Amino acid sequence: MSTPFTKTPGWLDWYQNPSEPAFALPPGTVDTHCHVFGPGAEFPYAPERKYTPCDASKDQLFALRDHLGISRNVIVQATCHGADNSAMADAVKASGGRARGIATVRPDVTDAELAVLDEAGVRGVRFNFLKRLVNSAPKDDLAVIARKIAPLGWHIVIYFESQDLAELEGFFGSLPTPLVVDHMGRPDVTQSVDGPEFGRFLRFVERHDVWVKVSCPERLSVSGPPALDGEREAYTDVVPFARRVVEEFHDSVLWGTDWPHPNLTDHMPDDGLLVSYVPHVAVTSELQQKLLVDNPMRLYWPGEWV
Ligand code: 0GY
């Protein structure tokens, strides 16, 4: 079926035919950060969206999961679908218990609507503070949402720019649920890993006992993907930041692909390479097991992993 939507100019499509990873993921690996986009003809993109993506269906996501040796997915509502969670919930339901979902809801969401999402496999909501992705994120509205979802045992995924943490930290500390931070709080990797900005983030994680996704090296990196002549490895500038988080907080780190990688215009990562990158940041099999399996299972499938 052809899509009635036209992709945002300059937007790169997700990588076709990803390579065989050089690293074998341990059995039970969870990809805790991925999305589905539409397909737009079936699940229309939201009028308020900031970009129009290429389609990325649940079947394409599940094919990538199987190719990479991933067992389970956590499918995060993308901003291009606004607060219409239909595509995400449809994918979660179709996974046969192998996916959980993270929704976007408005403050007027009803308990009945939340119950339907919970039944589908949703386990949290996402609060997005990136100005290029959402028009506004009024804290009063978010506090209302937080109070409504807390009784379900859900958590809140927070997505923010590192320079905004100082202003947001008090609000985050007031939220009544566990917190999960996207993409290590988006560090500026041109700064020192021992510098004040990343230091603030590390202390935030420690103080509030939050979960951290060690994800998106391709989005954070300035040095970029590997050189074709093999002279440069992938995303080397992100490695010290990711390693620090994995080593300091080994019981609360999570990993994800971020497929289909929204809003990239420079380069699109080979998802096989993103798997090969994992042992550079989790350097022992014990750390890999925690990052990839034990931690996400405890958060998203509690009681199902021994
Ligand atoms: C990500 C990152 C981005 C986009 C979204 O929901 C979204 O549109 O999350 C971004 O542009 O940084 O986590 O997928």
Describe the structure.
This protein is globular. The chain is α/β, with parallel strands linked by helices. The chain has an eight-stranded parallel β-sheet. It has ten helices and eight strands. α5 packs parallel to α6 (196-208). The site of (1E,3Z)-4-hydroxybuta-1,3-diene-1,2,4-tricarboxylic acid has 8 residues, from loops. (1E,3Z)-4-hydroxybuta-1,3-diene-1,2,4-tricarboxylic acid is lined by residues 78-80, 133, 182, 258, 262-263.
List the helices and strands and how they pair.
Elements lengths: L29 E5 L23 H11 L3 E5 L9 H9 L4 E5 L7 H10 L1 E7 L10 H11 L5 E5 L5 H10 L4 E3 L14 H13 L2 E3 L3 H4 L18 H10 L4 E2 L16 H11 L3 H16 L6
Parallel strand pairs: 1-2, 2-3, 3-4, 4-5, 5-6, 6-7, 7-8
This protein binds (1E,3Z)-4-hydroxybuta-1,3-diene-1,2,4-tricarboxylic acid.
The site of (1E,3Z)-4-hydroxybuta-1,3-diene-1,2,4-tricarboxylic acid has 8 residues, from loops.
Distance between the termini: 43 Å
What is the count of distinct domains?
1
Instruction: Please bin the fraction of helical residues.
Output: 25-40%
CATH topology: TIM Barrel
Low-confidence stretches: none
Q: Which class do the helix and strand fractions yield?
A: alpha/beta
What fraction of residues sit in β-strands? Answer: 5-15%
CATH class call: Alpha Beta
- The backbone outline, from C-alpha atoms, is globular
Placed side by side, the strands forming the largest sheet appear as 1-2-3-4-5-6-7-8
The CATH superfamily turns out to be Metal-dependent hydrolases
Radius of gyration: 18 Å
> Major β-sheet, in short?
8 strands, parallel
Summed over residues and divided by their number, the pLDDT gives a mean of: 95
Query: Number of helical segments?
Result: 10
Ligand inventory reads: (1E,3Z)-4-hydroxybuta-1,3-diene-1,2,4-tricarboxylic acid
- Write the CATH architecture name: Alpha-Beta Barrel
Order of helices and strands: EHEHEHEHEHEHEHHEHH
Query: How many DSSP E strands?
Result: 8
